[in-house]
Design brief:
The chain is of the alpha/beta class and about 525 residues long. It is built from 15 helices and 19 strands. A 4-stranded mixed sheet has the order 3-2-1-4. A 4-stranded antiparallel sheet has the order 6-7-8-9. α1 packs across α3 and α4 packs across α11. The radius of gyration is 29 Å and the shape is globular. It comes from Falsiroseomonas oleicola. This is ATP-binding protein.
């Protein structure tokens, strides 16, 4: 076999023994190039709109999988091609050469395509990926238009979907078999408004954005035993099923920059508190943001992660005390059921209703596309575009016009009340005014910032003031008050004002309860 023989795909290293029959050993450089060419010969390489290298790999069942060239899945695929098709075990050096060549070809390609996760929008049509392991054909997807929705076979899907390894398939949707109130079969919500807001979150979460977009967050609160974790899990499984759900909270922003771009919906469990940096990060994720950091093991190269995800949060209200996060969050209050059911019973009921609920959700998405241009929302909440989309979807869900937006507006007040009820600083201010009114008959406290800090710290007690969340001095107290001044005014009628006066321009703070 000559050195230039195209069938020479031997892959030993330079120290390997010569092939049977003796003779000179082939040059390692040539061998690596040949195996790289062979394993990449049937792969469609292209550059994504996110400037990352991608590969389209066709499988024996006829469907095409989109993979990130720099990911572990693509590496395993190349190993499989070398072994199963060419009958060789690829060496580490040859594999590295193949991966480098694939990345070079993909990034150097003039073929730029948009890659999507779970949802997509192409030429005005919305698409929903049915997920991995679809028993009736890999890579089927659901086309959603103003006229309705339909399941489309893989060969007719014009979308490049990429999935995380943990993605699970959606069920076969059933049209016309569910009503929006069926959610109550496995979710213990307190009121009708909560049911409407859950559907608002669901139809918004399956909306795809070509450019700038926004997703409302959904947060569940309630006493122990109300099924909060189960609620988050089932909501996640309904729209973006995965084996990885209910992730624990991390205080390292880099963890989120690694997790969020690899999936569509992300759920977090058992939040007992939220730092200012993570609260701000969740706000950016809801409305679209970018995380930039230096890429490890490089000379100053930057890693850029675009963040735009629907988030499901299970935690108590003090996790969401910052106003920006409050305004982006729909709060669902759960109550303990009158009759407790086992987890297996709840999940069995969910699985029974799941195909019909997905069908109703698709009806809502189709209605949103159809009705959006003619839907008017007056006095819209902060997430105006999301509320507009949810209101346009209402007829397809069987919900009367105006009810979703009305529930959305009232939910903001509920969010503020819930946040203040567990906010140590807010509770201390209310107690301070109660004491002043009891002792003097006045509904106002006035004094220097340092004195206010001392009085509120005494009221809060040592257990609270030793927490990292409690301001350590008057300046920190001033900054913390800015966070709750709006909710205190809206919920309790408490006004907080600051000023300077006197010959020495002494700073003062006034805390006053209005009539």
């Amino acid at each position: 076999m000559s050195e230039d023989d195209p069938d020479d795909f031997s892959i030993g290293d330079p120290e390997d023994s010569p092939p049977d029959g003796g003779g000179k050993k082939p040059k390692a450089k040539r061998r690596r190039r040949d195996i790289s060419t062979l394993v990449l010969s049937e792969i469609d390489l292209f550059r994504g709109a996110d400037h990352k290298p991608y590969a389209g790999v066709r499988y024996s069942r006829g469907h095409v999988e989109t993979m990130l060239v720099t990911g572990r899945t693509f590496e395993l695929h190349l190993r499989g091609v070398a072994h199963d098709i060419h009958g060789v075990i690829i060496s580490a050096a040859a594999l590295r050469a193949a991966l480098d060549m694939a990345e070079m070809r993909a990034l150097g390609s003039g073929d730029v395509r948009r890659v999507w996760r779970r949802t997509a929008e192409v030429d005005g049509e919305h698409w929903l990926d049915m997920g991995g392991g679809d028993p009736k054909g890999e890579r089927r997807a659901i086309r959603i238009t103003a006229a309705g929705w339909a399941i489309v076979p893989a060969e007719d899907v014009p979308v490049f979907f990429i999935r995380s390894d943990d993605a699970l398939p959606l069920p076969e949707p059933m049209p016309g078999e569910a009503q929006y109130g069926d959610l109550r079969s496995f979710i213990n919500v307190q009121g009708e408004d909560d049911v409407l807001l859950i559907w608002a979150f669901l139809v918004c979460a399956l909306r795809a954005f070509l450019g700038k977009g926004a997703y409302p967050l959904i947060s569940v609160i309630g006493e122990a035993g109300g099924g909060k974790s189960t609620f988050c899990l089932l909501l996640h499984l309904l729209i973006d099923p995965s084996t990885v759900t209910l992730i624990g909270l991390s205080e390292d922003v880099r963890d989120y920059a690694a997790i969020l771009p690899t999936r569509h919906v992300v759920s977090f469990d058992n939040l007992s508190g939220c730092s200012a940096s993570i609260s701000d990060l969740f706000s950016r994720v809801a409305t679209g943001g970018v995380h930039i950091a230096r890429q490890l093991n490089t000379n100053g190269e930057l890693y850029t992660a675009k963040l735009l995800n629907p988030l499901i949060l299970n935690g108590i209200a003090d996790s969401f005390g910052r106003p920006d996060l409050q305004e982006r969050t729909l709060v669902i209050a759960l109550e303990r059921p009158a009759e407790r059911r086992t987890d297996s019973e709840v999940h069995a009921e969910f699985e029974r209703l799941r195909p019909a609920l997905l069908g109703l959700l698709l009806d809502g998405l189709s209605a949103a596309i159809r009705n959006l241009p003619n839907t008017v929302v007056e006095d819209a909440p902060r997430m105006a575009d999301a509320a507009h989309w949810a209101e346009a979807a209402a007829p397809g869900l069987g919900i009367e016009p105006g009810r979703i937006v009305a529930a959305w507006r009232s939910n903001r007040g509920a969010m503020e009340r819930a946040a203040l009820s567990v906010d140590d600083l807010a509770r201390s201010i209310i107690t301070l005014l109660d004491e002043v009114e009891r002792d003097s008959g006045r509904a106002e406290w006035r004094g220097e910032p340092a004195e206010l800090h001392r009085r509120l710290s005494d009221i809060a007690g040592e257990r609270v003031t030793k927490s990292r969340l409690w301001p350590s001095n008057a300046a920190g107290m001033s900054n913390a008050l800015r966070r709750i001044v709006g909710p205190l005014r809206n919920v309790h009628g408490i006004e907080i004002t600051k000023g300077k006066g006197g010959a020495d321009s002494t700073r003062w703070v006034s805390v006053r309860r209005g009539p």
